[in-house]
Amino acid sequence: MPRIITLARTSHRKGRVGWNYPLSVSTDRKQQAEFTLASGIGYVPVTFTGLKDYRGFGLWVDGARVDQAVHGNDFWQTDYDPARKLWSVTYNMLRESSRPCQVEFRRATGRQP
User: Does the reported pTM lie above 0.70?
Assistant: First the structure.
């Protein structure tokens, strides 16, 4: 079976894109990132780096909060870098269309991940 790799094209407003695949985005000083994802189809992994804490954040795509939970917070994962004392959060964003979408990672209100 052939292996399919989807590269992500982005333009960012907040934060900085480190890698295009898997997509890695450094958050800004306010622990936020915002960008337009202009390509990719299927599940696209997106990692947000440079976080002081992993709790209390959310992901929005085209203004709608992403919540793929089946059993609580099972749709994202965190990693801790002990040398830098910083966290990263990775989501698998479902892209059902090749049209560009607006992606925002920021502090959440209401239900906390």
Answer: yes
